[in-house]
Each structure stands twice: as C-alpha cells, then as structure tokens.
Amino acid sequence: MTSSSAPKFGVLMVNLGTPDAPEPTAVRRYLKEFLSDRRVVDLNPILWKPILNLVILNIRPPRVAKAYKSVWMEEGSPLFVLGERLRNNISLSLNVNSQTNIPIVHAMTYGNPSILEGANQLRKAKANKILVLPMYPQFSATTTAAVYDKLMAGLKKCPSWPDLMLIKDYADHPLYIQGLVESIRKQWDEQGERRHLVLSYHGIPKRYADNGDPYPKRCLLTSRLVAEALGLDESEWSHVYQSRFGREEWLQPYADVTLRSFPANGIKRINIISPAFSVDCLETLEEVTFELGDEFKACGGEAYNYIPALNDSDAQVALYCDLIKQNSKQWEC
Ligand SMILES: C=CC1=C(C)c2cc3[nH]c(cc4nc(cc5[nH]c(cc1n2)c(C)c5CCC(=O)O)C(CCC(=O)O)=C4C)c(C)c3C=C
Ligand SMILES: [Fe+2]
Ligand SMILES: [Fe+2]
C-alpha cells in the first residue's frame, strides 16, 4: 500500500492519563475524573462522592502536584512525553520500512487527549478499522476495562461504527519478557553484580482480585517468566505491589513493608523493576525511584537502583509492532 491510499486500519494506543500541568488545579481536575470512575473506585457514590470532593480533592492535589513538579519534563508529563516518543518510533518502524500509512494515535483514559479525540483523529485519517492497544501489560478491570468503557461510551453517539479489535493484555508475550530480561541483564553488566531482583507492580484493592480481577495472576505470570528466563532461584527475586491508596487492604506483599524488612534479612543490595508500567511516570520516577529507595536505605539497605520502563526502546517498539501486526492480520496488514 502506498502512503497516498486510505489506511487499512488505525491504532489507538491508550494509557491512563496525567494532569495537563504540575499544578494543584490541573491535578485536582485529573484526580476528579480518574477517581470518579467506578472501575477504579467501586464504592457506592453516595458514600464516595463526599469523601472524594470534600476530603481527597482538597488534601491531595497540592502534595501530588509537588511530586509531579519533581519529575516534570520540558515537554510535559513523563507519562505523556514518553508515550509520544514510543508512538513516534512505532510509526517509523511500522510505516517507513514497509511503506504503509497506518495512523497511530496516543490517547488517555482520563484527561487529554481523550479516547474520543483519539478515535476522531483516526476517523479523520480515514481509518474505519481500529485496533485498540491499552498500554497495560497485565489486564485489570481498573485499567484495561476502563479503556473499553470509555471507547464504548464515545461510540454511543456514533451512527456508523468502525470495526474494532481490542488487545486484552501481553503479560506473557515473548518480546515483552525478552525486553525486561535484556534491561535487567544490562543493569547487571553495568554494575558487575547480580543483585536481588524486586519486581514491583502497581497494586489494586485485594477485594477486586477476590471478586475475579485476574490482574495479580497476570503479574505473577510475568514475574515467573522473567525469573525463569534469567535462571533465578526463588531466593534471588521478590514480587511486590506498590502505590496503595486508601484504607482497605490492597494486594500483598506490600513493596514498602517488604523492602524495609530486607536489610535485616541480609538483602542489602537490590535492583527494582516495575513491569506494569509501559512507560515511566509519576509512580516509577518518584515513588519507586526515590520513596521506596529512601525507605530501604533508612533500614540499612546499601545499594538500590530502579531499572527504567521499556519506554521507547527498540525492544518495546519491536513488541508493540508485533502486537499490532499479529492482531491486525485479519485486516491484511
Ligand atoms: C484509587 C485507586 C487506584 C487504582 C485501583 C489504581 C490502579 C492502577 N493504576 C495504574 C497505573 C497508574 N496509576 C497512576 C497514578 C495514580 N493511581 C492512583 C490510584 C489508583 N490506581 C492515583 C490516585 C494516582 C495519581 C497519583 C496520586 O495521587 O498518587 C499512574 C501515573 C500517572 C501519571 O500521571 O504519571 C499510572 C501509570 C495501574 C497499572 C493500575 C492497576 C493495575
Ligand atoms: Fe494508579
Ligand atoms: Fe503513588
């Protein structure tokens, strides 16, 4: 297909979303949309709305805005900037080499650019088949299903539907596992040692998993495949969950509790990787890189390094191109 003809399909890459600016007002707007989604917080709105509006949206934005400021890039929020770089590299790899014209857009479940804007952009590019690629390696109803909800809500007003293909997750995709493994090996080579490996995932309330959300099973699958590929025995790696929010129990083991216990148990030198994040963001650049590291060192930890997300690396571009090619086969890629 030449670049002048209509595309056979378009790709809608979707990530969580991020504030437009590292300022309390923008953070408040973002958190309000995000935390009002019942996929994320499933409490009865009669109970939750007053807590959200009167307590959380008053207390949290100034503190979180400060955290965003500490990681903000010249071009914007890391989640968005790094996602854009990835989108661009995928487009180059997919289209330039094979002389196709597949439009790839990058949208957010919450905030800007919205999923509806992304879908409209694809429509303008004349793509009437859409491959939806949520940027979450492990399916969770709190993230991946929320992408589908937003898309369907946007299409409610649309009289003519595009053909849709929804990618559910890629927790065990060989190129994903290979990318993580290569990043870890590269770190070991640079450090000249094989430190204890911590695989830390964003948590969800335990109740969601008890009610059937497969997320922890998908995370454990990723961890086991990485450990297996690296030839690690059980004592050489740990699987934990970070980013707790609110008072109820979240998935365990908790990252902070586990890391604080390590030095007393003889684990003083660690590397930490966060496989649930396709690109680096507030949670990895601030919470994992600094907060967790500080807690570990305060308890006697000696060496602590965060291994970056796959971001716009060749490994991640190869993975996403493969996901796109394999899942669009029926549309004759
Ligand atoms: C309140 C419940 C939350 C659930 C459930 C949740 C699940 C979840 N989130 C991600 C990925 C990201 N979360 C990010 C930030 C973030 N997450 C929550 C809360 C829940 N997440 C909050 C309140 C925030 C905002 C920051 C804060 O106030 O502490 C981000 C970073 C966004 C950015 O702008 O950089 C990502 C990415 C996953 C993968 C997940 C469940 C699987
Ligand atoms: Fe989150
Ligand atoms: Fe956090």
Automatic annotation (TrEMBL):
It is found in: Cytoplasm. InterPro entries: Ferrochelatase, Ferrochelatase_AS, Ferrochelatase_C, Ferrochelatase_N. Fe(2+) binds at residues 202, 283. Keywords: Cytoplasm, Heme biosynthesis, Iron, Lyase, Metal-binding, Porphyrin biosynthesis. Pathway: Porphyrin-containing compound metabolism; protoheme biosynthesis; protoheme from protoporphyrin-IX: step 1/1. It catalyses: Fe-coproporphyrin III + 2 H(+) = coproporphyrin III + Fe(2+); heme b + 2 H(+) = protoporphyrin IX + Fe(2+). Its EC number is 4.98.1.1. The keyword Cytoplasm applies. Belongs to the ferrochelatase family. Catalyzes the ferrous insertion into protoporphyrin IX. HAMAP family: Ferrochelatase. This is Ferrochelatase. The gene is hemH.
